[in-house]
């Protein structure tokens, strides 16, 4: 394919883009870099600026402590919105709170308590580090076994493969819905089914799927889930995460951080912890009001566009990227490490290259294309549909091709630093 042909194709796709208007709702500098890292930190919605001003100036500055009347329900109110529009979860099952790491810990701990007599936790050896570490910690504290399974990296865990590694000793299965390395999308319904047939509970990490792919927690029979809001939900660095616990499980779950925000009749200040009946028991301390307001804005934007439209564009973006990879990058030492089948793919394309780190650094410094590197040799190209155009995807691949053809990346240091 000629570069001019590809540019024309991309321009045509941009003209037909049903959610092209959405990009204008974000801070995008006209002379800024091409940003293919929305899967790490989403862009800033313009409305978040006004909302911040309102929360800080009017609500905090003006309303002072009285504003808690409107703030106190934010975790469940925004949780319900998130559940309805992006998670396929009915009300009363989603809470915005804490970080993903803390939520996964709370949920995993409560799940283990709910399966007494079973002594094994199963996860994926390729799972995101924080997930593995917190499970490792829980297993150590409780004298349980953690089985880390080597599922295929590009395709991820399938129901059949999962069925083989579960037993009647499995208390908890913890997996990522979309693999952070390859972008592989797991069959949530199928995996829930095989896990339930062995009596285990399932905990899903939704960090790389929420806001990028439609999720149906209720109808897929999911038990527990958590995810972050600073990636595809665009709520800002360190924004509060969310957790989901299925309604009929809630009464049987006790999370480990007993705090006053989960207490029945919180302001009675009474003796003895007595958790509230519903999901509120998963709250511990004061909610991050400012952060949750920004989650609210992120969710509203995606709800306005509709997650199906976001998904369609995302698949078209990643398909274009893969097509251009095949045409121009495969013969330069790159190898596709994401599923070719769009049904099995999240919203990113991962490429392997022996000089991936240097390519990534040179892309940022020389080519003004921001992507991220994952050890040992992976380049992740995130295609956040609300803020990425087809033209940008095309231009990014052209620049990567030119960069590697010219050998300019070889001038970069070969050592990774801490913050990519
Ligand atoms: C980004 C990400 C996290 C981040 O957890 P934090 O507690 O927000 O640092 C966890 N799991 C996965 C799969 C992620 O992609």
* Reported CATH architecture of the largest domain: 3-Layer(aba) Sandwich
- Count helical runs: 13
What is the name of the CATH class of the largest domain? Alpha Beta
Beginning-to-end CA distance, first to last residue:
32 Å
Can you list the strand order of the major beta sheet? 2-8-7-6-5-3-4
**For the report, how would you describe the main beta sheet?**
7 strands, mixed
Low-pLDDT ranges:
none
Write down the oligomeric state: single chain
Q: Which fold name is given in CATH as the topology of the largest domain?
A: Aspartate Aminotransferase, domain 2
Structural class of the secondary structure composition? alpha/beta
Indicate the percent of residues in helices: 25-40%
Q: At the fourth CATH level, what is the homologous superfamily of the largest domain?
A: Type I PLP-dependent aspartate aminotransferase-like (Major domain)
Bin the strand percentage.
5-15%
The average pLDDT is 97
Radius of gyration: 22 Å
Q: How are the SSEs ordered, and which strands pair?
A:
Elements: H1 3-16, E1 34-35, H2 46-62, H3 68-71, H4 74-87, E2 94-96, H5 100-113, E3 120-124, H6 129-142, E4 145-149, H7 159-165, E5 170-176, H8 188-197, E6 201-205, E7 224-227, E8 242-245, H9 247-250, H10 289-305, H11 307-329, E9 335-336, E10 348-352, H12 356-367, E11 369-370, E12 372-374, E13 378-382, H13 390-406
Parallel strand pairs: 1-11, 3-4, 3-5, 5-6, 6-7
Antiparallel strand pairs: 2-8, 7-8, 9-10, 10-13, 12-13
Helix pairs in contact: 1-13, 2-10, 4-10, 5-6, 7-8, 11-13, 12-13
Can you summarize this structure?
By secondary structure, the protein is of the alpha/beta class. The chain has 13 helices and 13 strands.
